[in-house]
Amino acid sequence: MPGAGVGDIRDPQLAEPAREAAELGLCEHCLGRCFARVDFGYGNDERGRILVEEHDLETTTPEECHVCEGLMGRVDRMRDVVEADLAGWAFDTFLVGTRVPPDVLEREEMVWEAIGAEDTESAKSELNREIGKQVEARHSGIGRENWTVEFDGPDVNAVLDTRFDHVDHVHKSLFIYGRYRKHVRGIPQTRWPCRNCRGTGCTECGASGLNYILSVEDLVAAPAKQATGASEATFHGAGREDVDARCLGSGRPFVLELPDPRRRFVNLDVLRRAITTCAAPAVSVSELAFVDKDAVSEVKGHRGRKTYAAEVAFEDPVPTETLFKVSDMLEGTQVAQRTPSRVAHRRADKTRHRDVTRCLLVHRRDDGLQARFLLQGDAGLYIKELVSGDEGRSDPSLAGLLDVGARCTALDVVDVGGPSALDATIRAEE
User: Fold this and answer.
1) Where are the domains of the chain?
2) Active site amino acids
3) What's the pTM?
4) Nearest partner of 238 among 224, 223, 254, judged by Cα
5) Is the separation of the CB atoms in 45 and 29 below 8 Å?
6) What's the pLDDT score for residue 145?
7) Cβ distance 155 to 174 under 8 Å?
């Protein structure tokens, strides 16, 4: 097949197919693209010029070209359009794509078939490369932003419609890992739509559409959206505590996902202070770090043991010796827990088995009607039901073993464990 496998653009074997192509009214770009994989180190326009000089051929201007109809002569203009569109965004890596009129692609295919060309490149591919190269060259090493073409997961994908000089772009989401501590009771981890109106707003929720006006998600996301220019944010936590529970200790791991950020270069120490100021006194954060998308599944999939401090009230006084004895009995026990009655309306009714790995009596009030316990167990262990028994739905339980009514009056999560920023596939950002 003419042109196939030839390694020198000046090879005489290319004379006839090049002449046939030129006679169809091609510009130097489109002529060179017929032999794009012949020889290295040349642009397609250079290949076309070499073929013209070597074989005394005549080509047209891009505007008169039978194939591209001026498209290949507008590369500089298209570069400027892409460049102007991206100017308001901060990023490191990008990739240019194009939408080329279908008739251009059809005509080039017809030319290749007519001359038997195999070492070809489409106009779309050349435009993607050439526009990207020019944009990169004009922004290489300039200021904080060093725009670099990246084929695998770029920060920005800019797609130019060559017919209308319109650019659509998709910006890779920014992912920020951290740990939050919830210092107060009464706020959920994530936004909680009103059960009555399902978020549309009603008299029951005061037209807010929410069961709770504030959440950890709201308090953390607002400063992050402002810092990055993202319009939305999604909060991914390593489990969640009850609304009326605090989360203390080193905090609970989370990843904040920020789609389409206008600014990727964020000082995370400044952001941490901004979040803490905005969320005080309810929430504080630590260990902020940029991570990759994989960190979301790692954090959400964390199933490590959790440690809690539980304040327990008894219906009748319980001696200290009895509390110690029952604590020893619970420690190391596997508990069968049917879906608690308090959440049965929104969770599947089934029985789960969880291990209690630690049960330590920390303090007993003198009257024996109240005590504090340190409890550790598998992820998913319902601590309130471990205490109360939930009318037999949780067995064994503290109340059942004591044969005395008991309920958890205050619950704190004191250790969640979970992946660190390093474990969560940290990505270096300056």
Assistant:
1) 12-171, 174-300, 316-404
2) 242
3) 0.80
4) 254
5) yes
6) 62
7) no
Radius of gyration (C-alpha) of the chain in whole angstroms: 33
Token pair 């005549």 is found at 58
Options 3.40.50.300, 3.60.15.10, 3.30.70.2510, 3.40.50.920; CATH of 174-300: 3.30.70.2510
- Mean pLDDT, to the nearest integer, of 312-333? 97
The pair phi, psi for residue 384, each rounded to 5°, is -60, -40
Q: Are 295 and 253 in contact (CB under 8 A)?
A: no
| Contact in structure between 36 and 28 (CB atoms under 8 Å) | no
Residue 4 is predicted with a pLDDT of 42
DSSP 51-109: HHHHHT---B-GGG-TTTTTGGGGHHHHHHHHHHHHTT---SEEEEEEE--HHHHHHHH
* pLDDT for residue 112 is more than 50: yes
Is 124:163 a contact under the CB 8 Å cutoff?
A: no
Domain 316-404 in CATH 3.30.70.3190? The answer is: yes
Q: Do 389 and 399 form a contact (C-beta atoms < 8 A)?
A: yes
Beta-carbon count within 10 A of 339 CB: 19
The dihedral through the CA atoms of 147, 148, 149, 154 has a sign that is negative
Q: Which of left, alpha, beta for 344 (phi over 0: left; psi -120 to 50: alpha)?
A: alpha
Question: Given this chain, do its domains 174-300 and 316-404 carry the same CATH topology?
Answer: yes
